[in-house]
Design brief:
protein transport, 4 helices, five-stranded antiparallel beta sheet, transport, 137 residues, Beta-Lactamase, alpha+beta, SNAP receptor activity
């Protein structure tokens, strides 16, 4: 069971943009890592863009399961995991991350923020914490 990506995005009016993301591509070949990370960023944006406000969904993309949660305020989270990782745990993680993110990052920053400008460092910690622990279903 493995988590590969955890992203926070904002579903604005024209399109979705990435606010912050964490990746674990250590299981991939060194030369594949950047393209795998690009694929995960693109897929996260696409899934969030196609999901309506206030929705949760799990979408199979190649050998991955992508779990998306789009809140009514436009803040969205996407977890990319393997097929064995429990869906319920992914949505619990997304709830926790989006609640914390919305408390720590001003809503004004959601509109124009980018991974370089948003100050929120907890994603890497969450990704490794949920990676190491064996989740319970």
């Amino acid at each position: 069971m493995r988590l590969y990506s955890l992203s926070v995005l904002y579903k604005g009016d024209p399109k979705v943009h990435l606010l912050k993301a964490a990746y674990d591509v250590s299981t991939f070949n060194f030369f594949q890592r950047s393209s795998v990370q690009e694929f995960m960023t693109f897929t996260s944006q696409l899934i969030a863009e196609r999901s309506p406000l206030g929705s949760r969904a799990s979408v199979k993309e190649q050998e991955y399961l992508c779990h998306v949660y789009v809140r009514n305020d436009g803040l969205a989270g996407v977890v990319i995991a393997d097929n064995e990782y429990p869906q319920r745990v992914c949505f619990t993680l997304l709830d926790k991350v989006l609640d914390e993110f919305s408390r720590q990052v001003s809503k004004m920053d959601w509109l124009s923020g980018s991974p370089a400008t948003i100050s929120y460092s907890a994603l890497d910690g969450y990704l490794s914490k949920y990676q190491v622990q064996t989740p319970r279903t």
